[in-house]
Amino acid sequence: MLSMDQAQILARDEYTVSPVPSLPQIPAEEMCLHCKNKSDIIDAQAETIQELKTEIQQLRDEIAILKGEKSKPVLKPSKMDKNTDLDDNPPHSNGSGVISKRPGSAKRSKTAQLIIHEIRIIKPAGPIPSGARLKSYQNFVVQGLIIKAHNICYRLACYQTNDGKCLRGQLPPELQGQHFNPTLRNYILYQHHHCHVTQPLLLEQLSEWHIDISSGQINALLSQHTEPFHTEKDEILAIGLQKSQYVTVDDTGARHAGQNGYALHVGNEDFGWFQSTDSKSRINFLQCLHAGPVTTQVNEHALTYMEEHGLSNDVCSQLQDHATPEFLSIELWRKHLEALKIDSETHVRIATEGALLGSLVEKGFNLKLAIVSDGAGQFAVLLHALCWIHAERLVHKLIPVNEGQRQAVAQVRSDIWRLYGDLKAYKRNPNANMVEQFEKRFDSVFNRKTGYQTLDNLLKRLYGKKEELLLVLQRPEIPLHTNGSETALRDLVKKRKVSGGTRSDLGRQCRDTFASLKKTCRKQGISFWRYLEDRITQTNAIPRLATLIRT
Question: What residue range is the signal peptide (predicted)?
Answer without folding.
Answer: none
